[in-house]
Amino acid sequence: MSDRLPPLTALRAFEAAARHLSFQAAAGELNVTPAALSFQIKSLEEHLGAPLFHRLNRRVELTEAGQALSPQASEGFQTLTAGWRAAKRVLDSGILTVTAGPAFTAKWLAPRLFDFAGSHPEIELRFAATLRMLDFATDDVDIAIRFGPIDVADDPSLHLALTIEEWVTPMMHPDLVPKYPTVESLLDATFIFDDSMKFLKNTVSWADWFGTHDLDTPDLHGTHFSQADHAIDAAQSGAGVVLGRISLGETALRQGSLVAPFETGLMPRANFRVLCPKGAETRPGTRAFLDWLAREAGRMEGLRDGRRIVRAGD
Question: For position 139, what pLDDT does the model report?
């Protein structure tokens, strides 16, 4: 039997039909008629010399040969699609797609994007605000900003362009500052709990922060938020005091709608990583965004001046 490959269109028809186990659904996906798809599959079976489907009354099933071909065909088309998308991204230098978590996108990226857009009008930024781990090859992503443990190794096929350190400190509306002049008085506050970092093995909590001042905490009660930006918003409204993440509270602190009056900050054993495929960091659009990101991240360092930053667990 010859190893000569059949026409790509016939393989594509088979792959879709094998996925759907329906000629009609596969034809709809490929924008062809069921008759045209059936013709392609018949030509593929003639090329192979054996049937690939059992044709039943209202459905189809893969034969043993079809079961052997289906996963390899699917993998092959996924690889081709990834390669095609990668080639298009290389040529389409005017579009840059960045993925980051919803809170980081809303509170850190969005407020400062006018600066990047003004400096680089030739680059069209697109954002995928999600915590889902996206694939650079299949999801058309150029840069990923992800928050996670510092002791987890990154994929060796990726370039680590930048790390951004995160830390937390009590943040509150300016009107609340006179009520809590000392760390001890803060124990009487209405607490806002940011539960967004609970996925970490060594997370940080109000008890940890008070512990850096050698204060035991009774059971602390308050409102819990699963999204960090919602906790920041609640603190800005005056609803209580949040142990806020500096990356997400930075804009409000600079604008004065939040105040961080205590000198102690607590750093989780996690940080932000800025990643891209190896080699992509040299592309003009990617390089411009990474350089801008590094400058903006450096501006946060000024918020550490005069503070005592403690690494959790040290």
Answer: 77
- State the DSSP code for 92: -
Residues 36 and 182 in one domain: no
Contact 74/19 with Cβ under 8 angstroms? yes
Task: Give CA–CA dist 151/78, Å, rounded.
Answer: 32
- Residues 291 and 142 reside in one and the same domain: yes
CA distance 23 to 33: 9
Q: Which domain holds residue 185?
A: 168-268+303-311
- Cα separation of 36 and 81, whole Å? 23
64 touches 49 (CB < 8 A):
no
Residue 90 is predicted with a pLDDT of: 62
Q: Which residues of the chain have pLDDT under 70?
A: 1-2, 85-93, 313-314
For residues 82 and 27, membership in a common domain is answered with yes
Q: List all residues 6 or more positions away from 186 whose beta carbon is below 8 Å from its beta carbon.
A: 170, 180, 210, 241, 262
Q: What order do you get walking across the sheet with 222-225 strand by strand? A: 222-225, 191-194, 241-245, 168-171, 264-267, 308-311
Q: Is 148 helix (H, G, I), strand (E, B) or coil?
A: strand
Per-residue exposure over 179-194, b if at least 16 CB sit within 10 Å of its own CB, e if not = ebeebeebbebebbbb
Q: What is the pLDDT of residue 136?
A: 78
For 178, the 3-state DSSP assignment is helix
List the beta bridge partners of residue 169: 244
Determine the Cα–Cα distance for residues 263 and 283; give it in Å rounded to an integer. 41
What pLDDT shows up at residue 138?
74
The reported pLDDT for the residue numbered 311 is 87
The reply to whether 261 and 202 lie within a common domain is yes
Instruction: Say how many CA atoms lie within 13 Å of 151 toward its Cβ.
Output: 5
